[in-house]
Amino acid sequence: MYNFDEIIPRHGTDSFKWDCTHEVFGRADILPMWVSDMDFRCPPPLLEALKKRIDHGILGYTSRSEGYVDAVTSWLARRFDWQVNRDWITYCSPGVLPAVHILIDILSQPDDKIMIQTPNYTALLDSIRDSQRLMVENPLVFDGEHYHIDFAGLKAKLDRNVKLLLLCSPNNPTGEVWQRDELMRLGEICAENGVFVISDEVHSDLTHKGRRHIPFGSLPENICEMSATCISPNKAFNVGGLLTSTIIIPNSMLKERYEAELGTLQIKLDNVFGRIAVEELYGNPECERWLEELLVYIGGNLDMAVRRINATGRLKTRRPGATYLLWIDFSGLNMTDTALRRFLVDKVGIGLSDGLGFGTRFGQFMRMNVGCPRAYLEEALDRLEKAIAELGLA
Question: How far apart are CA 33 and CA 352, in angstroms?
């Protein structure tokens, strides 16, 4: 059994989550529950593999081997029943987001349109703006329990200038796990209209009991040929600092163009520790056992947080089908967007991810990261409950 209750101080380690709170929130003394970075020690076999390489003493230029391909294909087959053609596999050593930017540059031109379902991961929205493309938001529809793709809105907003659709699967921040029929319908509409799908699936390994992740690239050939799937061990195994990713591109001509661009940018070689991480985390059975125990622990955190947040009578949230993230509706506090942000920082003393970062309509929402020891989560919920009670709302 792994001890996920262990408190491991992270201040003073150049942690983006812990050491940049003053820069992000204006205060250094808040409890950070924002960026999707967990506070758990990585699986021991990974740490041992990294130490072994350090003991070797040479950290020179590195490439990914057949062992890397074996680990990726085995993982995808075992976890998602996806038999991936080895020729489809490539990577981006700086991570998924640089790969997304490269694909956007290859597949579209400035002022082309890119569609995205909102709320959606902040960095994916930024990738559209930063590439000088035009964003087309197609808001998800919430039925009180699940978020759904608005297919009528999708069809109405498609035109010849929409070149790409960015998909976050499972969705960040809602934790919605898309069903096969939803993905098939989305894929068929995009394929019929010549719209290429870039699917960010970095949270796919964090799908909870009762839900099943369907890789977009596992759909029929006419759909998957118009797609690129981006995966990474970063979220599930808490190795975001290694900045490593695997990109799966079924279209051979696009894969060739993509890898040529890696060469142009001089990033075809790998991060030595990232390569080790992929092979160890996907290939070592003990790492997979660690993940299964982690999912049980996170499930307990989610259950407690959902119960206590909804019990305030003012806030609303739901248990996500995947991720360690909660999407919380604060509109019941009847505050302006600005007042809500000051309340959470100055009165509650917690740092959450701002809903406005996930789409233009979400100023009354915040994203909470519960990927932490339970003591941290209990402290955050205690502070939240106390501050709401002190508002004296009838």
Answer: 5
Burial class (CB in 10 A: 0-12, 13-18, 19+), 98: middle
**351 contacts 30 by C-beta, under 8 angstroms:** yes
Question: What is the value of pTM for the model shown?
Answer: 0.96
pLDDT band for 394, please (50, 70, 90 cuts): low
Which pLDDT belongs to residue 79? 97
Tell me which of 35-49, 178-192, 266-280 is least confident: 266-280
Give dist(CA 83, CA 154) in Å, integer. Answer: 30
| 300/308 Cα distance (integer angstroms) | 12
Strand, helix or coil for residue 10: coil
Spell out the residues 6+ positions from residue 391 whose beta carbon is closer than 8 angstroms to its own: 333
Q: Which of 232, 250, 252 is nearest to 242 (CA)?
A: 232
Residue 330 to residue 277: CA distance in whole angstroms: 38
Rounded to an integer, the average pLDDT of 28-37 is 96
- Sheet with 353-354, strands from edge to edge, namely 325-329, 365-369, 353-354
Positive or negative, the CA dihedral 203, 204, 207, 213 is: positive
pLDDT at 59 over 70: yes
CA angle at 89 for the pair 88 and 93, rounded to the nearest 5°: 145
Residues 123, 134: Cα–Cα separation, whole Å: 15
Q: How many CB atoms lie within 10 A of CB 302?
A: 23
- Please determine, for residue 393, whether its predicted confidence score (pLDDT) is greater than 90: no
Which residues make Cβ contacts (< 8 Å) with residue 260, sequence separation at least 6?
Answer: none
Q: Is the distance from CB of 281 to CB of 73 less than 8 angstroms?
A: no
pLDDT averaged over every residue in the chain: 97
What does the longest C-alpha to C-alpha distance in the chain come to?
Answer: 65
In the chain, alpha helices (H): 16-19, 21-25, 44-56, 66-80, 96-107, 122-130, 151-157, 180-192, 221-224, 234-237, 252-264, 272-283, 285-311, 337-342, 374-390
Buried b (16+ CB within 10 A) or exposed e, 375-391: ebbebbbebbbebbeee
> Pairing relation of β-strands 113-116 and 134-137?
parallel
